[in-house]
Amino acid sequence: MMIDNKFFSETHNFLKKISADIIIPNIGKLNENEVSTKDDNSKVTSYDVIIENELIEYFKKIGFSNIISEEGNSELIKKNEYLTIDPIDGTRNFINGINKVAIMLSFIKFTQCEFAIIYDPISDVFYHTHNNSIFKNHKQIQRYNYSNQIGFLGEHAKIYFKDIITSYTEKIRSRSIGYDVIEAIEGERSFLTVYGSKIWDLFPAMSFLKLLNFETNLPNMEFDYSKLEKKIIFYANI
């Protein structure tokens, strides 16, 4: 497959259709039998599974053979090249009718991210990374220049990161890593903490935050599995 402007435009159109057909009509309107709790106490809905299956089918048709998805089998992480899919990042928000959800994708080759996508289905805003640049609705944008730290630290995080973030304006997290990253891109949040994340939300987020020149407590910003299950902070260098 060719990763070019046409690819991103067609992907945007497909995500827009999924959102119009599935996400927007059902946000905050789910029945009890459409929601279940996973082993890690996170929530999953029947619509997560429907969207994920549609995304897998779409990307397989255009040439992505190794796909790792949130609700599917993740045995394929042993490969050196894979596409990650998070069908609804912010499932609890989706259930509760809170318009802070995202569809997240990333394509990893040999610990480097070839591209990442964070799509806001409510506002139809398509963000992607490619060739060391960030694009919003297919137009390249520059990183925001922060003048102060803005974000949220829980009580444990205040202790853990006391030497990294010492003075900040509190902004409650959205309960969606993807949406928090969107706020970082737009200058509304200058740091975020990630605890015990999975590759389908961490790797797309990392792709954007790396290009925003965010600092981190990670030893490197390569896309490998040593990052998982760690307490991570990403923050703008003021």
Straight-line distance between termini: 39 Å
Radius of gyration: 17 Å
The helix count comes to 6
* DSSP summary, beta strand count: 14
Shape: globular
Which structural class fits the helix and strand makeup?
alpha+beta
Strand content: 25-35%
State the order of secondary-structure elements, H for helix, E for strand. Answer: HEEHEEHEEEEEEHEHEHEE
The helicity comes to 25-40%
**How do the strands line up in the largest sheet?**
3-4-5-6-7-8-9
Residue-averaged pLDDT, rounded? 92
Reported for the largest beta sheet, the result is: 7 strands, mixed
* Low confidence ranges: none
Tell me briefly what this model is:
Helix content is 30%, strand content 27%. The protein has 238 residues and is of the alpha+beta class.
Can you characterise this structure?
The structure is a single chain. Helix 5 runs parallel beside helix 6. The strands form four sheets. The chain has a seven-stranded mixed sheet, sandwiched between helices. Strands 12-14-13 form a three-stranded antiparallel sheet, with helices on one face. The chain is α+β, with helices and mostly antiparallel strands. The chain is built from six helices and 14 strands.
